[in-house]
Write a structure and sequence with these properties.
The complex is a heterodimer of chains A (143) and B (142). With 143 residues, chain A is an all-alpha fold. Chain A has one domain. Helices cover 71% and strands 0% of the residues of chain A. Chain A has helices at residues 2-20, 25-32, 41-60, 80-97, 101-106, 112-142. Chain A starts with a helix and ends with a helix. The relative contact order of chain A is 0.10. Chain B is an all-alpha fold and 142 residues long. Chain B has a domain at 77-142. Chain B starts with a helix and ends with a helix. Classes of the chains: A mainly alpha (143), B mainly alpha (142). At the A-B interface, helix 1, helix 2, helix 3, helix 4 and helix 5 of A face helix 1, helix 2, helix 3, helix 4 and helix 5 of B.
Chain lengths: 143, 142
């Protein structure tokens, strides 16, 4: 049952990404390009996505998930260098190609060879992340 | 069509948020694309491997079917493979270091007023803006 609902959530997420225009790299780069021909679409996407989720978080208070278990606890408000550095690196790559992980997966079957290359590079980056984290932590500890 | 874009953005956004709400309220999980995939890639998510794989299967196949039946979508990704590979590596490393991307930090984090999610979103938006300015307007590679 968990897998059925996971599939449905993934499918709805993918459909939303496609319909909203998030799988179109020109729209994403158009939103990030504040000095060019700025495209405000992404503000509507993000706003539209946050609204139902904010209601869901309110609803979740004092309840448990429908299929059992517990809701994820709110993470400690601890920032740290990995959060900042990681977000900067992610943002740089996001601007460069106009793809983030969700749309990269949603466009996998119809995004052509470039999309497959992006996916492979992203997976390679994910595999490289743990040693990079150790290295960054070492620098942070010694400075 | 251009002036309709914001409506499609809003409708698609509501669907994205609806998916995140469904995954939270039914499965009790955070809908973060990079975390769900990353946990499969590096093995850290092996306790719920099937649930992650099912989510990704839906994320890949439903847009595939929609693309086949109703749209002829284009990613308009740059043909410059050096740019594509660099961007993919940066997105892969960055999202795992930061423990989240646009869906996890942006949608799920901001909507519960998580400080980490809000700070991450500010930094990746800033870096994304700088990246486009530098690589498009200064260097002209994208």
């Amino acid at each position: 049952m968990r897998n059925v609902f996971a599939f449905l959530a993934g499918g709805l997420f993918g459909a939303g990404l496609l319909i909203s225009g998030m799988t179109d790299t020109t729209k994403v780069q158009g939103w990030l390009d504040i000095f060019g021909d700025w495209d405000p679409t992404l503000a509507f996407v993000l706003g539209g996505a946050i609204l139902p989720m904010a209601i869901a978080w309110r609803f979740a208070m004092g309840r448990v998930p429908a299929l059992g278990g517990a809701f994820p606890a709110k993470p400690e408000a601890k920032l740290g260098h990995n959060l900042v550095l990681g977000s900067l690196l992610f943002g740089a790559g996001w601007g460069l190609a106009g793809l983030c992980p969700g749309p990269a997966m949603a466009s996998l079957t119809w995004g052509g060879m470039g999309g497959l290359v992006f996916m492979a590079a992203m997976i390679a980056g994910m595999l490289a992340a743990p040693p990079v984290r150790v290295w960054v932590d070492g620098i942070a500890a010694s400075s | 069509m251009i002036e309709m874009d914001w409506i499609w953005g809003l409708v698609g956004g509501l669907m994205i948020g609806g998916a995140a709400a469904l995954f939270l309220l039914v499965n009790g999980r955070i809908m973060g694309a990079s975390g769900l995939l990353g946990g499969l890639v590096d093995g850290s998510g092996s306790p719920n491997r099937a649930e992650r794989a099912a989510f990704i299967a839906g994320l890949v196949t439903v847009p595939a079917v929609l693309a086949l039946l109703f749209f002829e979508p284009e990613t308009n990704l740059t043909p410059n493979l050096a740019v594509v590979i660099s961007a993919g590596l940066l997105v892969g490393i960055g999202t795992r270091l930061a423990n989240g991307c646009t869906s996890g930090h942006g949608v799920c984090g901001i909507s519960r007023f998580s400080l980490r999610g809000m700070v991450a979103t500010v930094f990746y938006l800033l870096a994304g803006g700088f990246s486009v300015v530098i690589f498009r307007h200064l260097l002209g590679v994208i």
